Amino acid sequence: MNTPLGTDRQQAARDHLWMHMARHSGLHNGGKVPIISRGEGHMIYDDAGRGYIDGLAGLFVVNAGHGRAELAEVMAKQAEKLAFMPLWSYAHEPAIDLAERLAGYAPGDLNRVFFTTGGGEAVESAFKLAKQYFKLKGQPGKTKVISRALAYHGTPQGALAITSLPGMKTPFEPLVPGTFRVPNTNFYRAPEMFSENEKDFGLWAAERIREAIEFEGADSVAAVFLEPVQNSGGCFPPPPGYFDRVREICDEYDVLLVSDETICAFGRIGDMFACNDFGYTPDIITSAKALTSGYVPLGVMIASEKLFEPFTKGDTTFYHGYTFGGHPVAAAVAMANLDIFEREDLNGNVHRNADAFKSTLEKLKDIDIVGDVRGAGYFYGIELVKDKSTKETFNDEESERLLRDYLTPALWEAGLYCRADDRGDPVIQLAPPITIGQPEFDQIESILRSVLSEASSKI
Ligand SMILES: Cc1ncc(COP(=O)(O)O)c(C=O)c1O
């Protein structure tokens, strides 16, 4: 007789569960899979009942915190009333209400709301819309896309083509052609001549977009995809004036500006949409993750009236869709999630406490390997360096020992779930639920202090 399901989940995970972006070799050598059983507020608990601070809100997702019974109840009610209808030429109340609400939060005339099930699909949708829009406008050659070094925009083959992490792309090449890279806004590693002047650095970085458009030919470029604060590489905020200049360049060359807010929306930086925090109006916003605080999957592309206009005529159709995009249960949960944001003023919590969060983390700069603390809102990256005076980074082997062999398990052991990442230079990333305040900032700092202080001796 087979053993009943659930008897040995470690073994079953090793035998059957193909985890995402995971190295399975370690597991097959006897490594243990962390199994998370429940969450409450800003805490998650493993299958042995041990608690951890959720320093990453799952994966930049659970902004309103775990364990909200209210959201579970909304889910159950909606599933009972209408479990499913697609948005393929039909509509349902939760999707209509949510579309209206999101259009209200979005800047300018970004009024047209297209639902997906996640961020990669939202990026994919924006890429396809940009191409079709220009075809409909009689500029069929405008198909190319520009994005920034190290940026991550998702895994579908179009979104992956826009992503700028060679290690994640090469196994799947050839990808969608016609994507190009410009520098990101990592001020810590800005060219020497800008080391004292962030504004000039931002203008220089914006000019690289203009240059790329000119190199490729404006007639061939459809869109620029940028995150408000770039996640991959370790939280690069936009220098002052950067987005103003990018907007001017996009207008001058008739190139669409896509604000990929898969992470940065819904309070992560402070506003419902981070473009509002930084004062620019894109042509398209893409988002997902915290729209439902992760209680169910949902993504979104929000486009301006200009982009929708050609689709109001004759038989013109955006032949694009997802069975589960804008699922009624997901849309109902998103509405209830946003009700919580407003009722508890979660965005206000971020606006009031972001500086305190940053300055608490900045205390870590007295540790020998902490080179930089950067970010905005409740979204920070701590860059680790071998030599603070020269900013020398770790080589691949050292980085492997530091991040994978030491930091990831040590932080977990010390009770903090966060990300130790080496997609650029090594960084620790923090993006906790936006419900927390100073007591939790202090706990996070204290755990990081004890673990990072030991790190040099482990390399
Ligand atoms: C900026 C950005 N775009 C797109 C994606 C892809 O989102 P998803 O994993 O929901 O497809 C992510 C995921 O983290 C992201 O950070």
Automatic annotation (TrEMBL):
Zinc-finger found in the keyword field: no
SUPFAM superfamilies xrefs: PLP-dependent transferases
A matching Pfam family: Aminotran_3
Keyword field: Aminotransferase, Pyridoxal phosphate, Transferase
Domain of life: Bacteria
CDD domains tied to this protein: OAT_like (cd00610)
GO MF annotation list: pyridoxal phosphate binding; transaminase activity
Keyword NAD recorded: no
Record-linked NCBIfam families: PRK06541.1
Family statement: Belongs to the class-III pyridoxal-phosphate-dependent aminotransferase family.
The name this protein goes by in its record: Aspartate aminotransferase family protein
Lineage of producing organism: Bacteria, Bacillati, Actinomycetota, Actinomycetes, Micrococcales
